[in-house]
Specification:
By secondary structure, the protein is mainly alpha-helical. It has 10 helices and 2 strands. The protein is 76% helix and 3% strand. Helix 2 packs across helix 10 and helix 4 runs antiparallel to helix 6.
């Protein structure tokens, strides 16, 4: 799902633009270098997350499996889709096989859907943890978390398949002069609402409720519990809040990276001005289409390392093991 996929809807506005493939200016080289760096860093970062969770037994918990699911989705984009985008950018001929176009488009839609669905569920999981701390281990077991992850992958598979077909006379996936593209206004409208705006609203509501519950738990501990129990309760509460804060930052990074893409896509498909005119500027197209969305795959491992000491120690341990070998 790339902003170039709506080229059919803004062709009149973009008719005077010079193709990125033919004009190798500073913007062309900047995009190529950044894409290479994103591929390398996102692949290494998400591999480290998965390897650390595989090696460290303390990470084998239901809530950590959702982070592994998120890292797997980011890794799929880093390994499959982003190299395809880079090849399409630097190649003179681009992708000539419609089957390859369909495969890589499906991977991108699938991985993006898995990411936002996982983030939405993580917000609900953190809500359960903070609102029902004593019952959480019963409500969310390893078996239940694996069932939820299976449902997320199934929904993402169906969603990616939905993007493959043409509706209401649209062309679906096709090969344009600038590479693989999708002409499907129904899909873009549905995807912007169901795969970004609605999950984002749900996630923000969950984290808002979490903040109120955490504040109420802190006040309750000061009133009803003894000094010893207050200390233990506060330690547990502080750990929960640290984890919630980290995942809230992950959600914020996702909104920052994908928000401009979905906003421009939705309003351009529905012919809403003046946002439709934003696509006339090359720099806006490059940033919202090629830089920010794949950049999100790098953000999560960095956030884990910066805001969670357990992940930071696990990464150091993993690097030490690699260097020793």
């Amino acid at each position: 799902m790339r902003l170039s996929n709506i080229s059919e809807f803004v062709a009149a506005n973009q008719s005077n633009q010079t193709s990125f493939k033919t004009e190798k200016n500073e913007l062309w080289y900047t995009r190529a270098v950044l894409t290479i760096l994103i591929i390398i860093l996102s692949t290494l970062g998400n591999l480290m997350v998965l390897a650390a969770m595989w090696i460290e037994k303390r990470f084998r918990q239901p809530n950590k499996y959702f982070i592994a699911c998120l890292a797997s989705a980011d890794l799929l984009n880093a390994v499959f889709y982003n190299p395809f985008v880079l090849y399409e950018h630097i190649s003179e001929t681009g992708i000539t096989s419609i089957h390859l176009c369909r495969f890589f488009m499906w991977i991108n839609i699938f991985a993006e859907s898995a990411s936002i669905n996982t983030l939405t569920w993580i917000s609900y999981d953190r809500y359960l943890k903070i609102s029902k701390p004593l019952q959480y281990n019963v409500l969310m077991t390893t078996q239940k978390s694996l069932i939820v992850i299976t449902i997320i992958w199934t929904i993402s598979t169906a969603y990616g398949t939905f993007g493959m077909f043409a509706y209401s006379g649209s062309r679906g996936i096709y090969i344009s002069s600038q590479g693989c593209a999708i002409q499907n206004p129904i899909f873009f409208t549905v995807s912007a609402i169901s795969a970004f705006f609605l999950p984002t609203v749900i996630t923000l509501i969950m984290y808002t409720r979490i903040l109120f519950i955490a504040h109420r738990r802190r006040k309750r501990a000061n009133v009803f519990l003894g000094e010893y129990h207050v200390k233990n309760h506060r330690n547990s509460l502080h750990e929960d809040i640290r984890n919630i804060r980290m995942m809230a930052i992950v959600v914020g990074a996702f909104i920052f990276c994908w928000g401009p893409f979905f906003v421009l896509t939705f309003f351009s498909v529905n012919k809403v001005r003046p946002l439709e005119y934003a696509l006339e500027y090359d720099i806006i197209v490059v940033v919202t289409r090629h830089i920010l969305p794949p950049l999100n795959s790098i953000c999560n491992p960095i956030i884990y390392a910066c805001f969670d000491q357990k992940y930071r120690e696990a990464f150091k341990h993993l690097v030490n093991r690699i260097l020793c070998r």
